[in-house]
Amino acid sequence: MRAVSGDSIPIAATIAKARAGGQRQSALVARRDGSYRFRPAARTIAMPPLDPTALAAKTPVIPVLTIERVADAVPLARALVAGGLPVIEVTLRTPAAIDAVRAIAGAVPDCVVGVGTVTKAADIAAAVDAGAKFLVSPGTPPALATALAQAPVPVLPGCATVSEAMALAERGFAVLKFFPAEPSGGIAWKAVAAPLPNLKFCPTGGIVAQNAASYLALPNVVSVGGSWPAPKDLIAAGDFDRITALARAAASLGGRRTDDGRRT
């Protein structure tokens, strides 16, 4: 076995030494004198995920939408914006979802449209290509967390436990979706504010007009997500005036917040 020039360390030992020191290699390269060296892999600097705090703080309620028909997308978005809810989440639960996002992004400039139910890396590319301004996942397994951390738009990754929240915080995520909120402890989630003071949450799942204010009163909640401002039956009926009225009532909840999520 040839030795590494200068210190006569065998190739196997060189590999072990480099690994122990955390060095990443792309290839073992032979020198002209018969010794070997590692050609280092290109270094990359990990950037933290984009912070969605200011976006989530724009509204106390983020409507969570299931859009069956693309034709409903633009009038629905306009109705919600008119009612004071400019940030909306279109879930990837129907074949029409991506086209609906594309239609809203192109026709309703005052609407900040995001994509929810992101469950795989391919969803990220499709959503961003359609014009999504943010992404939301129901849960965040490690592979998806890695992909979301590299997304070119802000992300609210989903969690249901303190351990999951801590794991996402370690990856640099600042605002998390707490889902499903009601079955996972409800407003008792306020207890997480003490051990994890730097994390903020957007609870969804079981949030309705009757309990939204209780969540919005929590110090670690920036906004909540729910479907009640735009029920499926009103969307199907094309009753966008009623949706505007529901949005206006939802927008009045929780007072106003600063860009860092603090209530004023």
Query: Helix/strand-derived class?
Result: alpha/beta
What would the average pLDDT be, to the nearest integer?
87
Low-confidence region ranges: 1-9, 14-26
Helix-strand string: EEHEEHEHEHEHEHEEHEEHEHH
Radius of gyration: 24 Å
What would your notes on this structure say?
The chain has 264 residues and is an alpha/beta fold. The chain folds into two domains: 3-40, no CATH class; 53-251, TIM Barrel, CATH 3.20.20.70. Helices cover 32% and strands 18% of the residues. It has helices at 11-20, 53-56, 73-82, 97-107, 121-130, 142-149, 162-170, 212-216, 232-237, 240-251; strands spanning 3-4, 9-10, 25-30, 36-40, 61-65, 87-91, 112-116, 135-136, 155-156, 158-159, 175-178, 200-203, 224-226. The strands form five sheets. Strands 7-6-5-13 form a four-stranded parallel beta sheet. It has a three-stranded parallel beta sheet with strand order 10-11-12. Strand 1 (3-4) and strand 2 form a beta hairpin. Helix 3 (73-82) runs parallel beside helix 10 and helix 4 (97-107) packs parallel to helix 5 (121-130). The protein is globular and about 80 Å long.
List the helices and strands and how they pair.
Elements: E1 3-4, E2 9-10, H1 11-20, E3 25-30, E4 36-40, H2 53-56, E5 61-65, H3 73-82, E6 87-91, H4 97-107, E7 112-116, H5 121-130, E8 135-136, H6 142-149, E9 155-156, E10 158-159, H7 162-170, E11 175-178, E12 200-203, H8 212-216, E13 224-226, H9 232-237, H10 240-251
Parallel strand pairs: 5-6, 5-13, 6-7, 8-9, 10-11, 11-12
Antiparallel strand pairs: 1-2, 3-4
Helix pairs in contact: 3-10, 4-5
